[in-house]
Amino acid sequence: MRILLSNDDGIHAPGLAALERIAATLSEDVWVVAPEQEQSASAHSLSVHLPVRVRKISAKRYAVSGTPTDCALLAVKEILPNAKGQISNGKNKKAPVDICPLTFDLILSGINNGSNVGDDVTYSGTIAAAMEGTLLGVPSIAFSQLTDDRGDVLWQIAEKHAPDLIKKLIKTGWPKGTLINVNFPHCPPGKVKGIKLCPQGKRRISVALTERADPKGRPYFWIGGERDNTPEQPNVDIAFLHAGYITVTPIGMDLTDYKTLEKLRTDF
């Protein structure tokens, strides 16, 4: 497989390094195209009002000045097609490079420092990279790691469980237009209770807006607040993740509410 890695925590993030170690167990043809700086909560945004710069760090490793969406788009449409000298021919070493399809077989995004469950899905830059990959026709998986109250991160949980999980997902397959959202619990790797295939939940809203003043006395707001991890319903990603399970949630790119659509058609 030719695998692309990206994230929203930036090119130097420890979660990306963990994902690189995971990808190395699956393929020798691994590419990294990630944001130059942290892009958390950037959602599925494109940099349409600013120039986007690409910095080549080494073979198959690039930093992008834009968002995770920019990274996935540039990797598929620009970086890979123009990097023929770096493309592996796999086992058939004598085959010309041009016979290799200039595409990725899989996109892995993450591993995010913090979970992405419930309403996080709409804000997450980690999931956005997988969204863009999905729109570009490449099977994509987003990975996030739950942390504790002190912000401690146990990357070894994903390193232990992700390789087999990825292999199972690839073997099973999933439809075009759908990405896979995976979250790992915060517990010792051997204490993970299992894997739960579950729907996206909904958090109770808990957002703090703090008004402050800059040195010139002009007001500004700082958006923050603690997450409320109490799900509004049972058997969803939020509940299972905090109970010690790895959660796997398929997310469709078609956001149409078909039930409401049919009702509106009738009413109109």
Quickly describe the structure.
This protein is an alpha/beta fold and 268 residues long. The protein has helices spanning 14-24, 68-79, 120-123, 125-135, 155-172, 237-242, 258-267, and strands at residues 2-6, 29-35, 54-58, 61-64, 106-113, 140-145, 178-184, 194-197, 208-213, 219-224, 245-252. It has one domain: Survival protein SurE-like phosphatase/nucleotidase (Stationary-phase Survival Protein Sure Homolog, Chain: A, 3-Layer(aba) Sandwich).
SSE inventory with pairings:
Elements: E1 2-6, H1 14-24, E2 29-35, E3 54-58, E4 61-64, H2 68-79, E5 106-113, H3 120-123, H4 125-135, E6 140-145, H5 155-172, E7 178-184, E8 194-197, E9 208-213, E10 219-224, H6 237-242, E11 245-252, H7 258-267
Parallel strand pairs: 1-2, 1-5, 2-4, 5-6, 6-7, 8-11
Antiparallel strand pairs: 3-4, 7-11, 9-10
Q: What does this entry look like structurally?
A:
With 268 residues, the chain is α/β, with parallel strands linked by helices. It has one domain: Survival protein SurE-like phosphatase/nucleotidase (Stationary-phase Survival Protein Sure Homolog, Chain: A, 3-Layer(aba) Sandwich). The chain has 7 helices and 11 strands. α1 crosses α5. The N and C termini lie far apart (49 Å). About 2% of the residues have low confidence.
